[in-house]
Amino acid sequence: xxxxxxxxxxxxxxxxxxxxxxxxxxxxxxxxxxxxxxxxxxxxxxxxxxxxxxxxxxxxxxxxxxxxxxxxxxxxxxxxxxxxxxxxxxxxxxxxxxxxxxxxxxxxxxxxxxxxxxxxxxxxxxxxxxxxxxxxxxxxxxxxxxxxxxxxxxxxxxxxxxxxxxxxxxxxxxxxxxxxxxxxxxxxxxxxxxxxxxxxxxxxxxxxxxxxxxxxxxxxxxxxxxxxxxxxxxxxxxxxxxxxxxxxxxxxxxxxxxxxxxxxxxxxxxxxxxxxxxxxxxxxxxxxxxxxxxxxxxxxxxxxxxxxxxxxxxxxxxxxxxxxxxxxxxxxxxxxxxxxxxxxxxxxxxxxxxxxxxxxxxxxxxxxxxxxxxxxxxxxxxxxxxxxxxxxxxxxxxxxxxxxxxxxxxxxxxxxxxxxxxxxxxxxxxxxxxxxxxxxxxxxxxxxxxxxxxxxxxxxxxxxxxxxxxxxxxxxxxxxxxxxxxxxxxxxxxx
Length: 495
Description:
- The longest helix is centred in the N-terminal third of the chain and has 23 residues, at about 135-155.
- Helix 7 (about 135-155) crosses helix 8 and helix 13 crosses helix 16 (about 435-445).
- The chain is about 35% helix and about 25% strand.
- The protein is globular.
- It has helices at about 10-15, 20-30, 40-60, 60-70, 80-85, 90-100, 135-155, 175-185, 200-210, 220-225, 235-240, 255-260, 375-385, 395, 420-430, 435-445, 460-465, and strands at about 115-120, 130-135, 165, 190-195, 215-220, 240-245, 265-275, 275-280, 290, 300-305, 315-320, 335-345, 350-360, 365, 370-375, 400-405, 410-415, 465-475, 490-495.
């Protein structure tokens, strides 16, 4: 007789399986400790067994079975090494599997009990949908929320009275971040939840009048606005704002400084989430950029071009596999971000994988035959402007965006600065006759490896026919390109 727990053969077998949350809690009862606290080998054993099961669940679906067997054969996938042989699920494949006819589902949609979450396709340009089994989606929220309570909120929301966590993401939208993050935040034990949505100053100040410490999660633009919202608040209210959780981008040093000046007790931390992964990594220490995964929630992989795990200290693509949810598994989903694998977090209270964010996978600019990683190019340009005492971009910018127009052969760094027009003459007076172009080119060049020096130098950039420069603009104006949900992509590439 086949073991239907590890080798389900039919849809009914899948529906009869225990949830992964029940497996995790059983392991905690037997071992007398939280999964977070288990040594890494114990965590790995739980995850390997679950991956074995997920692969067999996926094989119930003919499309998944063909993908799996074509890459790894028909044998059980019962090790991390074997799992790495499976194909990566990119965004186009993901869209084909779970949007419209949804041929990638193991349990058909007409069996009911699912939640549909839409993504606007801010990186791929194509909208897609994700299907979650409702019961295990709620268990996902419970697991992630409990982790946030233990390892984040317990340290930042002190006292025995009421505590609050809010999100500015709009939960009424069929937009993945609003739905997923709100679900997690609602499940933080001992903390009240506010689904605030996009906040005005009046709404924010009303919320800040509630007694007790508060945490707020939003995209970078929404968090950046909160510094200006402090005007008129009492000192007690300002001191009660303890945690700003930001996602979808990077807060500039100026924004961070403005927030800290307005709210003296504030810790600014990254909350990293995406479609198929409602809590990929959390910044637990404001003084360290490292993001910590939630043990038991996902298998988080950082892979090279061949889909193999990179070594500690190396950069790679972020790939996730949800461990919760039997009815619609998705194996090895490429999120669209590049991260650096860091040393695992090890200690009596928490053992977990850690990584550092490096940028979106599409954040590259092509000039001639050379490819420039936008985060490194930005750092190089910032340093050139600072070294030449033209402008401390980090000190004044609230938003930054590269705009590349291939038709007109132009590359501009657009800098959102309050009072931009007043700053323009000051910057112009410090530049030479060629304006900002030489500094932008120097920043691009220094962002490259020394091995690119022969073909990627100032002469090559000039031969490309591109014009280079910066533009100072008002942060709220139309010059910065935003997505439908208000994000400011680092790179806008127009053909």
